[in-house]
User: Fold this.
Amino acid sequence: MNDLEFFRKKLDLCIGKNIVLIGFMGVGKTTVSQYLSKLSDVKAVEMDQVISEREKMSIPEIFAAYGEEYFRNLETNLLIELQNETNTVISCGGGAALRERNVKEMKKNGRVVLLTASPEEIYERLKDSDDRPLLNGRKNVKGISELMEQRREKYEAAADMIIKTDDKTVPEVCEELVQRLTEMDEE
Ligand code: S3P
Assistant:
């Protein structure tokens, strides 16, 4: 069996429950979920994308038209709905884990994996993007770092596992994730 087949096999074995990816904007939740789903039979669900398609509006448009609370309620409802899924990697919007209720629903959904990256790295990844309303006026390393600090405790409390993504490739992050999920299953 080559490395890739071995990795796929492991992923199939540990996915039975869903994987819920959380973390700050730009940590790579979407990229990681897409990579995992390309490798195996797991489905990738991008919560922001589902919400945006259903509302027929972009995320900034939803925030502008109805406000953050409305958007957060859509996230809660979607997390509940996704409990019907299996073999799915759910990529949450960066603020989803800040609500206690959402964390409860995530835990029912599967294992919650927090991805992290440094403010410098996040800035590099997001500096040219305009689709994060909560970064308006603070799209610099200091602003990102402050918001990250405000959120850190809640992110860490929600997580069953924390994976640093700085200086790692997407395959490396995925391999670490699968390896650690397998170890959790063996405990
Ligand atoms: C948000 C993160 C965004 C999106 C919305 C709010 C946040 O998702 O849900 O702009 O509060 O951190 P990404 O983490 O996918 O960028």
Remarks:
- Residues 1 and 30 are 28 Å apart (CA to CA).
- The mean pLDDT is 91.
- Strands lie at 18-22, 43-46, 88-91, 110-116, 161-164.
- Residues 25, 29, 48, 59, 93-95, 132-134 surround shikimate-3-phosphate (CB under 6 Å).
